[in-house]
Amino acid sequence: MDSSASSGDSIDSLITSPSPFHPANHICVLCRNFYTLGWVTGTGGGVSIKHGPHIFIAPSGVQKELMQPADMFVMEHASRAYLRKPPVLKPSACTPLFLAAFDRGAGCCIHTHSQWAVLVTLLVERDTLRQGSSTADLCFEIERIEQIKGIPKARGKEGMLGYYDRLKVPIIPNTAHEEDLTQSLEAAMERYPDTYAVLVLRHGVYVWGDNVQKAKTQAESLDYIFRLAVEMRRLELPWTDQNTN
Q: What's the whole-model pTM score?
């Protein structure tokens, strides 16, 4: 048998499975669903799943609604070495940001270009500038919204946030190149250790969770909250009680 063919078959076994929940299959399903929500239009956004020692990453520049398991990149988490690289595709520019989440224990990381996420960052930026405050440490905050219960408490704490808890999602400045966001993302994770998401100004949001189900639930809950926040602002309704911290 041709050794190169044998090697190729072995590598492709990483992305071959009849299970719909295998990362290579699951990422394709998620991307198709996210496309219908307007989260990953124009090849933007991405999804990555950690499965055992391996990280499965959607490629860059591929229409997310047409993605196939054969398009997946597979990386060994410990060494950061690619075990599988589709020859005609480029690795996702989001990869170092996904790795930042996995290094902190996440099992899945989702990046979307949701319009509601972008609008929320613009509203926070505008409010901060109007107050004459620095935009160096922007943060979206909201409370007393039922859907906050879809967001877990800090890592190591059991349960979900409650109706009276204040949800805080840090906002970092955008950069010309996606990978250049990594340092700011990691700094935001350190400043806000309880967060499971980071907004990127005029860009979108990164959301991560312990597993795929939790990351998806949190991404959906946050997008609902972002949309609600934009509509609340349109109606001149406050996001928080200014008398609380």
A: 0.93
Residue 9 binned pLDDT confidence (cut-offs 50, 70, 90): low
Catalytic residues: 146
- What is the distance between the alpha carbons of residues 51 and 107, in angstroms, rounded to a whole number? 7
CA–CA dist 183, 13 (Å, integer): 34
Residue recorded with tokens 């795929």: 212
Integer Cα distance of 114 and 142 in angstroms? 18
Q: How far apart are CA 154 and CA 160, in angstroms?
A: 9
Q: Which two tokens stand for residue 217?
A: 């639930």
Q: Which two tokens stand for residue 134?
A: 């620095």
| 8-state DSSP, 108 | E
Could you read off the pLDDT of 219-232 as tens digits, one per residue?
A: 999 999 999 999 99
Cβ 135 vs Cβ 103: under 8 Å: no
Residue with tokens 């799943």, as numbered in its chain = 49
